[in-house]
Structures are given as structure tokens and as C-alpha cells.
Amino acid sequence: MPFGLKSEGVVRVYEYGCLAPVSGEEAIVGVLRARSDLWNKLIETERELDRKRREVYARASELASLGVLEKEIEFVSNLIGSLREEIKRERKLHRQGSVALSARMLEDLNRFKGCLARLKAQYKEARKGALDGVREELEQLEEERRQAVQRVDDEFKRVLWWPNRDEERVEYENARKRLVRSRSEGQKAELRFHRFDGTGKATVRLRERGSAGPWGMPVGNIFIPNSVCWMRPVPPEAWTSPVRAERRRKARTVLHFRVGTDADGNPVWAVLPMVMHRPLPEGGVVRQVSVVRERVGRHFRYKAVFTVQLFPNAIKEEPLLDGVVAVDVGWRRVESGIRVAVWLDDHGNHGEVIIPDRLYREFLRLKELQSLRDTHFNEAKKILVEFLKKAQGMPEWLLEECRSLKEWRSPGRLVSLLGRWKKNCFPGDKGILNWLSDWQQREDHLYDWQSHLRDQILRHRREIYRIFASQLADKYGVVVLEDFDLRKVVKTPPPEEGTQGSIPPDYQRFIVAPSELRLCIVNACAREGVSVSLQPAAFTTLRCHACGYVEKFDAAREIWHRCPKCGELWDQDYNACVNLLERYFSKESADS
Predict the structure, then answer these.
(1) Which GO terms describe its molecular function (predicted)?
(2) Of the chain's two ends, which shows fewer C-beta atoms within 10 Å, N or C?
């Protein structure tokens, strides 16, 4: 939970759209900037201590003679990389996803991969033994890190209210845990600085006035003026009126949000018009409220996020439904769009979750718009390079700014340069400035179009997933899902395994967002009191549900598969659902 130790009940998050603040916007932006500065200061501290940890590791490695193993690992990794580059060249030459690789090439690649795995295992064991000798020194560095983080926190007490400092530290500690886990898996990970772009969130914690007990304010009291956060009451007709225009009108309210405290100890307020399109749950406790500022194109959008804790007496009782449904998540292109998941219940009813073709084409339009922007940007760079070569009497600042112009990848750099150039004109630059101004006008139009289109289609996709999840939670008492790490599924496959379709795997993941679908299902089930059962994912696709035979086949290239043992023809995702239901009922029988 974002506000402390876990307690009874469940936590739900409610989002409401807001207009730009009528007052206090500068204060909100100041908090967001201070949070960004705090994060960067923490990362600066982390990197300095990380440098000291590397020195300790280097001494330990030298004592344990790990350098030989490191060189061998690097040598074998380079061999694998060379082979994969050769495979990429072959694929590019043939312009297709699957290339008939020579047996010699595959044999060499598999041998090198096996050798690399053995070397890494040896290195891991040797390094573990080497670090045991410097464990005390590492613990001292960890204590030094904690003290440094506390000093940074104290430094920001004057500019940042404590709920925001606390939240930023929690995010930093969570990022460190992910960093340690990634490095333990052999990845070269690093915590990164954040460039402040005007986005972020400001947070307040709520507590009853005069109370010294647990944090939280009853939902009904959020409509009563207080010293932290409150809003104007909203009548019940805002959610119950049969007239849509009346609901829209009466759902409008005003949020008073405390951003911080001034030098005299007086609260600093931000006031935001808000649309409360649905009520907060009765019997709940509002633990914290955040105002989020996000960018869409060249404009900013606000929303208010309420974190509400529901105690057992305020949560829906277990449903009387006894149906069981299995959902297999896995995307593939079908005639009507992209199939994201297949579901099957214990009565034989089944169906699919499909991103419709019209929405799929809008995702592809995003790539087309990006390609068009890149083409215009490359043309602008070419024109500017030619101008710099021919023009005389260039100011030094312009030549310095454009020193690496050919390597620029962000149109924003050229827009920034153009803004400075217009304030510092010189003789002979009128023509190029007019041309670049026309380019900027096209770039602004395409950038806004692309950004708003992305926002619309992502919200449309989320609505499809939410509706499906709500239908499951309303109809069934148990939802069965595969228990596996989705991060491993969406990784780009190595070249020897092919590209798995004409769309790059990372863009397939972006279109489908399987984690978002699973999250929608889990949230809907938690809201309605429906059980979620996670079953092992091993061989759910490869095991024939009719005879139990397990065959390894290329599941990425074919939806329908015929079992070589019993001859049964089945859709592999439907087959996975049958196996999930079988494992669920087998486990239930064993437990009973």
C-alpha cells in the first residue's frame, strides 16, 4: 500500500478528470519540479555509492581471479553476437521472418549458448564466494547509503511537503529492488535521471481533524472543508438521473487540494474544476489524494486520483455464482482484428477477446505518422546542413549548437534551436528561418495528431478490456488464469527464432498490452468478490487435451494444430483453456 503497512480490507483507486487549475497551478508545477529534483538527487547519491561498490567488487574479483572467466564470457558472447548479426543479414536479404538456417550455423549457435550458460554458472558461484570476503565492507556502504538518502530527504524538507518526499523515496527504493533483481539476472541495468517535462503528481495524506490514529478520512467527510483536501458536495442526481445532460451538469464540482505550506505556515491551495462521474464507495476511507499532471501532445491534462480503503463490512459479499471460466492470454492476428485472449467455462461456452480491425488500423496509423514525422525531420536536417555549409558569417553559438546536427534524433532539439534562433537573427537567415518555421508548423500538427490518437486508442483498448472483465466477474464465481511472468513473453526473440510475424514483437506488445488485460480481470474480480485461481502455465498450449500427449511445435506460427498421436484438431488457445480448467478441478479434488 502506498501509505504504510498493510491492514485489513482492500484498496481501490478512483480517477476523475479535472480541468486546468483556476488557481495554484504554479504551486503544483513547483511541487512536480521539486519531486523531479529529489529523484535526481537520490539517483546521483546512488550512482556515487554504486561506484564505490564496483571498486569493492573489482578487488574481490581480482582476489578470486574472476578476470579469466569474465574474458571467456565476453569472448563467447561476441561469438554469439556475430552469429546473430549474420542471421539478421540473411533475414534482411530475404525480407521475410523465417530463413532456412544451415545446420552448421544452428549447431554452432547452440554450442556457444550452452558454453555461455556454463561459464555464467561458474562465474556466479565464484563471485558469490569472492563477495563473502567483503560482506562487511558492503554492509558499511549500505549504511552509508541510508544516511546519504536521509540527508537528501532533510535537504528537501523546506521545498517539498512530507507526503511527496515519502512517496518519492518509496519509488526510489522500489526502483533499487528492481535494479538488484535485474543485475542478479545478468542484465546491465542502471537507475536513470529524469528530465523534468512538466508532468508528475502531487500527493496529500488524509486524517480526521484532531485525530492521532491511523491515516484516513471517511468518504462522507471529503465534502466537508478541512486543512488538506476537500471538494464541493455532489448531489445524487449526478449518478442517478435518467437525463444524461443533467448527470453531466450536476457531476461538476471543485476540488480544493493543498499543495504545501508557505513561509508563514499557511496552507498553499490549488483549486481544480472536477467531474465526479461516479460516487466514492460508501463505508470507505480515503487514505490519500493525488493530482496528476500528464502531457498529451503539446498540452497538459489533469486528473484527481483517490486511494480508498474498504474494510470487510464495506466489501461485497462472496457471489452466489458457482461457474468457473478459464482465460488464456495470447495475441495473434485473425481476420476480424487481433485476438488477445480465449475464454472457456465449465459448461463448454467459449469466446474470444478481440481488438477490432478498425482499432488495429489506428495503431498502425501511429507508426505511419511517426514515419512521416521522421521523414520531414530528416529533410529539415539536410536543408539546415546545406545552409550551414554555404552561408557566411555564422554566429559561434549556432555553429556550436549544430556541431552534431546529423546525429540528432529528436525533433524537439530542432524546435528548441529554432526558438533561440528567432530571438537572435542575423543577416541572410530569413529564407532558412521561414522554411524551418513551416517545418515546425507541420511538426506541431503531426505531433499533436499522433499524441491525441495514441491517447484515444489506448483508452478505447482499456474500455474493451474493462467491459470483458466486468462480464466475467458478473457471471462466474472463479476465474482461472495462467501463472507466469508476462515480461518474459514480450521480450524480443533472438534472430534464430525469427521475427514471429510482420509486426515487430515489441510493437505487438504495445498494441495488445496483455498485462493490462490481466490487471483489468484481477481488479474486476476483486471488486465483485470473485476468486482468481492461478494455475501453472507449463505445457498448457503444447499438451493435447484429448489424449494428454505433449508435442513441441511452433506455437507462434499456427493457431490450429493436429495432435500426431490421436489426430484431434484444436485451436491451441482453446486447448490451453481446457488444460487450465482440468488443472483447476484436479487441484480442487485433491484439496477436498
Answers:
(1) DNA binding
(2) C
DSSP state of 233: -
DSSP H helices in 64-134: 67-94, 103-132
Quick one: cell of 537?
A: 502455465
Q: Nearest Cα to 205, choosing from 176, 170, 153?
A: 170
How many Å separate Cα 262 from the centre of its chain? 35
E strand or H helix at 261, and its extent?
strand 252-261
- In the predicted model, is pLDDT for residue 539 greater than 80? yes
Write out pLDDT tens, residues 474-499: 999 999 999 877 665 555 666 655 55
C-alpha cell at 66: 574472476
Grid coordinates of 278: 461516479
Does residue 472 contact residue 343 with C-beta atoms inside 8 Å?
yes
What does residue 35 show for φ and ψ, rounded to 5 degrees? -65, -40
Instruction: Give the three cell numbers for residue 179.
Output: 535494479
Contact 288, 4 (CB under 8 A): no
Residues of the chain with CATH 3.30.420: 324-363+453-591
- Are 398 and 425 in contact, with CB atoms under 8 Å apart? no
Q: Name which of 228, 248, 222 is nearest 237 in CA terms.
A: 248
**Rounded-to-integer distance, Cα 473 and Cα 454, Å:** 29
Distances (CA, A) of 280 to 15, 233, 340: 10, 12, 32
Residue 292 contacts residue 446 (beta carbons within 8 Å): no
CATH code, 324-363+453-591: 3.30.420
283 within 8 A of 27, measured Cβ to Cβ: no
Give 217's strand partners. 286
Instruction: Measure the CA dihedral 416/398/373/371, to 10°.
Output: -130
Q: How many C-beta neighbours within 10 Å does residue 137 have?
A: 16
Query: What's the predicted TM-score (pTM) here?
Result: 0.81
Q: Summarize pLDDT for 543-579 with one digit per residue, the tens.
A: 999 999 998 887 777 788 899 999 999 999 999 999 9
Q: Scanning the structure block, which residue is given the C-alpha cell 498448457?
A: 540
CA 86 to the chain's CA centroid: 33
In the block, residue with C-alpha cell 503444447 = 542
Task: Please provide the distance, in angstroms rounded to a whole number, between the alpha carbons at the two ends of the chain.
Answer: 34
